Amino acid sequence: MHYTLHFGQVTPEIPYLLWGALISLELSVMAFAGGMVIGMVGAIMRLRGGRWLSRLARWYVTFFTNTPQLVQIYFIFFALPEVGILLDPFPAVLLGMTLNAGGYLTEILRAGLASVHQQELDAAETLGMSHLQTLRYVILPHIFKVVMPAMTNQYILMTLGTSMAAIFGVEELTGRAFNINSTTFRSIEIFLLTGGIYVLVTLAATSLLALVGRYAFRARVRIL
Amino acid sequence: MSFLDIHDLGARYGSLRVLDGIDLSVEQGEVVSLIGPSGSGKSTLLKVITGLMKPDRGRVTLAGAAVDYSNRKSLKAARDRLAIVFQQYNLFGNMTVLRNVTVAPTTIKKRNRRQVEEKARELLDRVGLGDKLHVYPDQLSGGQQQRVAIARALCLEPEILLLDEVTSALDPERVSEVLDTIRLLAKDNIAMLIVSHEMSFVRDVSHRIAFMADGRVQEIGSPEQIFDNPQTDRTRDFVGRISRVGH
Amino acid sequence: MSPDFLSDLPKLFTFYNILLWGEAALTTLLLSAVGCIIGMIVGFVLAIARQSRRRALIPARILSGLFVEIVRRVPFLITLMLFFFGAQVLGFDLAPLTIALIATSVISTAFVSEIIRGGLETLKPAQLEAAAVMNFTPLQTLRLVSIPQALPIVIPPIFGYFVLFIKDTALASQVGVLELTQAGKIMTTKGHSAFLVYAVVLALYFIVSYPLARLGGYLENRLVLSRHS
């Protein structure tokens, strides 16, 4: 087996790929933010929603965590037009990723909320804390300490998941790798390089989230 | 030469010197105890003898053979002659009591399975656990686990038994059951090197006692000498202090 | 394409189509199962190499650490494409299913290895010291002490990963493997309603995944309980 790697044809494309990585980043941050909103509503519904709202939230989680994200996006992109909902690739992928993340984040945040004990709230009250102070100094730090590792992990998985957007024609990092592949045919070099960029991007994200967790919430997250 | 002979033994954790020239010997069938303040190097000495920590100077001779701790064969030969009981018992959580006792003699030393099992049952009977053969360690109290650990060590038929603070992780009411077990063994003519904070037990069971401080043996002598007529100020100070708190 | 989904439904489940769906569902399970079984075997070796303190094994330790950390940070799709186009460029004539099996095995090896490493780390080092003093060889310690204790700890999360991985294998459709997602694509090109087809695909994934997820939860509770009984 003789194969020599030639990165010569590929290296000029690095800036093109990096701009694509920015689109991946945009997609993951937006989907994560949307997923957090769904997750918070879902977690509160699960814990405080009464019988039907709690059930509704559980069904949502069960559906989205037991079917593939890719097929969920297929459904949005290819099936919804039949009932008159037409979305461009980027919004379709974003919607799919957001709904999917909402399922996983509901479970993560529910575990975090459930870990706050009544005694802690009582203790805060006997210390004479206001509701806002209790939220700021007791509840939020506690929740974040519990959920930070799982949330970091979820965000990393979502960053990797953005590569699915290429399948629908979004020219993010993987989409641009496909483009270069079809013009240069230096497949091994391109996918190695692209993989390397994903490694760096996710490493940077983990480090940043670990720092945020450590300073804002004194939560420990493993970087490696 | 003594059965276990230690000369000028030194060891350190990084830059911290914990053993600084230990000289000590244990004869065949002799019970020697190590006492001294925490951090004096007693447990470290047992770690070095058993090869869990490398010495950086000095010599250990076991049954006439110098132990080379960086040579696997030599270390294996030394470990074949000794057994150790740890402070935290260290039983294998995935094995029943009986299996804990028989695993090393049968699978490592390749002794006859039936004979080993018979001996294990006898030993477990002796430590009062004859009815617990098929339970798992986490179903036993600390004192019971420690007695299993002692049976496990004895089933190896060691020529010398090392005991590392075997009662310090136990509830006070469990201490005597373990000490009584060891008292019985001491009558069996097996050599023992004991690290313990139980002074009345140590005095009762030992032929000789070594007082350690700062990684050295400061004084060694009969129990009467160490407790009633210590020869150095440091020993006198230590013994005086512990007898005042009522050990 | 007709928006009248219900009239299309029977046509989606003709005898031959049912065979196709069945084969596709089995392929989906196969991809995940093979990936996880190979992942368990190789992952164990890698986890042990990463744990080893022996000087002679330092290169193996570094390499397995790099492998696990890198593979877990590259998208499945990129790994799949690397193997797919890599095989072409290097002149290997491999079936898409073979390529997908190789890629899923590599990926699950990295993830499962990390789970196993976590399991091995929960073992008390003191037991290993006891084994060492009793002259257990490193291999005997693994066989008699570490693996029996790590297995009940790692089986539930590995099973959980296997269930998650079922959904990830949907990407194998991108190299043309006939699994559930690809079956859906084929059905839509045959003119069936995409709405109906993808609803069926989602339902089939759910039927495969949900009972296994429940089983995983049960497994986790039972093993946790049995360790404390």
Automatic annotation (TrEMBL), chain A:
InterPro entries reported for this sequence: AA_ABC_transptr_permease_3TM, ArtM/GltK/GlnP/TcyL/YhdX-like, MetI-like, MetI-like_sf
GO cellular-component term (any): ATP-binding cassette (ABC) transporter complex
Pfam families xref list: BPD_transp_1
ABC transmembrane type-1 domain: residues covered: 21-209
Gene Ontology molecular function terms on file: transmembrane transporter activity
Biological processes per GO annotation: amino acid transport
Keywords, ordered alphabetically: Cell membrane, Membrane, Transmembrane, Transmembrane helix, Transport
Membrane topology label: Multi-pass membrane protein
Compartments (UniProt record): Cell inner membrane; Cell membrane
Keyword field contains Transport: yes
Residue spans crossing the bilayer: 16-44, 56-77, 83-105, 152-170, 190-212
PROSITE patterns referenced in this protein's UniProt entry, alphabetically: ABC_TM1
Assigned protein family: Belongs to the binding-protein-dependent transport system permease family. HisMQ subfamily.
Protein name per UniProt: Amino acid ABC transporter membrane protein 1 (PAAT family)
Organism name: Breoghania corrubedonensis
TrEMBL record, chain B:
Matching SMART domains: AAA (SM00382)
Keywords: Amino-acid transport, ATP-binding, Cell membrane, Membrane, Nucleotide-binding, Transport
Superkingdom of this protein's organism: Bacteria
GO MF entry, a single one: ATP hydrolysis activity
Domain named ABC transporter: residues: 4-239
Source species of the chain: Breoghania corrubedonensis
PANTHER family: AMINO ACID IMPORT ATP-BINDING PROTEIN (PTHR43166), GLUTAMATE_ASPARTATE IMPORT ATP-BINDING PROTEIN GLTL (PTHR43166:SF9)
Lineage, top ranks: Bacteria, Pseudomonadati, Pseudomonadota, Alphaproteobacteria, Hyphomicrobiales
Record's bilayer topology term: Peripheral membrane protein
One GO location term (cellular component): plasma membrane
Annotated localization: Cell membrane
Family to which the UniProt record says this protein belongs: Belongs to the ABC transporter superfamily.
Matching SUPFAM superfamilies: P-loop containing nucleoside triphosphate hydrolases (SSF52540)
Protein name: Amino acid ABC transporter ATP-binding protein (PAAT family)
TrEMBL record, chain C:
Protein topology in the membrane: Multi-pass membrane protein
Residue ranges of every copy of the ABC transmembrane type-1 domain listed in the record: 25-213
One of the GO biological process terms: amino acid transport
Domain of life assignment: Bacteria
Entry keyword set: Cell membrane, Membrane, Transmembrane, Transmembrane helix, Transport
Keyword Transmembrane helix appears in the UniProt entry: yes
Molecular functions (GO terms): transmembrane transporter activity
Transmembrane segments annotated in the record for this chain: 20-49, 70-91, 97-116, 195-213
InterPro entries in the record: AA_ABC_transptr_permease_3TM, ArtM/GltK/GlnP/TcyL/YhdX-like, MetI-like, MetI-like_sf
Cellular location(s): Cell inner membrane; Cell membrane
GO CC terms of this entry: ATP-binding cassette (ABC) transporter complex
Family per similarity comment: Belongs to the binding-protein-dependent transport system permease family. HisMQ subfamily.
Protein name: Amino acid ABC transporter membrane protein 2 (PAAT family)
Organism encoding this protein: Breoghania corrubedonensis
